[in-house]
Design brief:
single chain, Aspartate Aminotransferase, domain 2, 16 helices, cytoplasm, pyridoxal phosphate, amino-acid biosynthesis, globular, about 45% helix
Length: about 425
């Protein structure tokens, strides 16, 4: 980064500090990961310099000879990897991608159904504080208090009563397999468009570690980072029937020119995800999460739904008598990066909730095996107890142990060890 260091040493120093932080810490936020050197390189190319409103072969700017090929590669790779008829790789991120769904299929005031945010859903699935819950009529389903799982019979009853035009399945804190066929049956019965938001599990789907929504969902919405290990971007995939509506909603409905450097990086990530190494990675993510969950449960941690089928664990710390925010900040001081999170039927406020959310995509990218989850669970247990007791000495000791493990498993894509 010699040019950056010369022009703006302050920003350069912060980038270097972040590189070191990502190298030295155990990153357990489920939505974070490490991208490869190739993906990083693609995001920093001269494709940044080019404006390309429109779609391949139908642009509003000239000089698209190379850009059209880049975007076409990304589209074809996405369609192949996810077995969908159509792909749009232009959405800037997950929330605009979901907003394009609303523009494609709904009018203001129409009813949309999604999982309630406190139950593990996403803001853009019709939750009240989001534009999607302000401009549209959102109705929400949840999970059972006793099991932490979705009761599809209750989802069906709600759909029959409310008659939504769009149904979202998926979310941001859903540790169990999403029943795409079950949701599809409900959507067909009420005449709704089914949208599978697989932002968290896209990489698991690509690697065969989670069932696919292909053949069930009308539209698939996903980010391209998280378990997919691509850049910060998004995609919308659909059946052929909805291709035109999706494309028109993204452009010109919501966006201008696509970010071509991001499109290129998406194409690279999709190529990587089609390989056998990625398939092994996806299955290891799940194995690591399940191993970590078992070790935490053995130490008295309450796992929402009792465990996980994917990359994510949602932990209710009420029984440990430590608020989620307090635990998360203590874990951060120990070099274990998580996020505090509401749990279903939480009695605490969202900014000071009862739980934490953890996941294994990033640590698995470092090659850390399931056998190491015993140590990770032990560290989490020690730090949560130390947070309650005000024991900073233990937190400092765990920080050194975390650093030693990180040194043993260098992160991909980083210029530091």
């Amino acid at each position: 980064m010699s040019h950056l260091a010369h022009v703006d040493p302050e920003i350069a120093a912060l980038v270097v500090a972040e590189e070191q932080l990502q190298a030295d810490t155990l990153r357990l936020i489920p939505s974070e990961n490490y991208v490869s050197h190739a993906v990083l390189e693609a995001t920093g190319t001269v494709l940044q310099n080019k404006y390309s409103e429109g779609y391949p072969g139908k642009r509003y700017y000239e000089g698209q000879q190379n850009i059209d090929q880049v975007e076409t590669l990304a589209i074809e790779r996405a369609k192949s990897l996810f077995a969908m008829d159509h792909a749009n790789v232009q959405p800037y991120s997950g929330s605009p991608a979901n907003l394009a769904v609303y523009l494609a299929f709904l009018q203001p005031g129409d009813t949309v159904m999604g999982m309630a945010l406190p139950m593990g859903g996403h803001l853009t699935h019709g939750w009240g504080v989001s534009a999607t819950g302000t401009w549209f009529r959102g109705v929400q389903y949840g999970v059972e208090q006793t099991t932490g799982r979705i009761d599809l019979d209750k989802v069906r009853d709600l759909a029959l009563a409310e008659r939504p035009k769009v149904i979202f399945c998926g979310g941001t804190a859903v540790p169990r397999t999403i029943d795409f066929p079950g949701f599809a049956e409900i959507a067909r019965e009420v005449g709704a468009v089914l949208v599978a938001d697989v932002a968290h599990i896209a990489g698991l789907i690509a690697g065969g570690a989670h069932p696919s929504p292909a053949g069930h969902a009308d539209v698939v919405s996903t980010t391209t980072h998280k378990t997919l290990r691509g850049p910060r971007g998004a995609m919308l995939l659909s059946t052929a029937e909805h291709a035109r509506a999706i494309d028109r909603a993204v452009f010109p409905g919501l966006q201008g020119g696509p970010h071509n450097h991001t499109t290129a990086a998406i194409a690279v990530a999709l190529k990587e995800a089609a390989g056998p190494e990625f398939r092994a990675y996806a299955h290891q993510v799940v194995a690591n999460a399940q191993a970590l969950g078992e070790q935490l449960a053995a130490r008295g941690f309450e796992l929402v739904s009792g465990g996980t089928d994917n990359h994510l664990l949602l932990i209710d710390l009420s029984g440990k008598d430590v608020p989620g925010k307090v635990a998360a900040k203590a874990l951060d001081r120990a070099g274990i990066v998580v996020n505090y999170n509401t749990v279903p039927y939480d009695t605490r406020k969202p900014f000071d909730p009862s739980g934490i959310r953890i996941g294994t995509p990033a640590l698995t990218s470092r090659g850390i095996p399931a056998s190491a989850m015993t140590s990770v669970a032990e560290w989490i247990d020690l730090v949560v107890a130390a947070a309650k007791a005000g024991d900073e000495e233990t937190i400092t000791k765990v920080r050194a142990d975390v650093k030693a493990l990180m040194d043993a498993y260098p992160a991909p894509g980083l210029p530091v060890r």
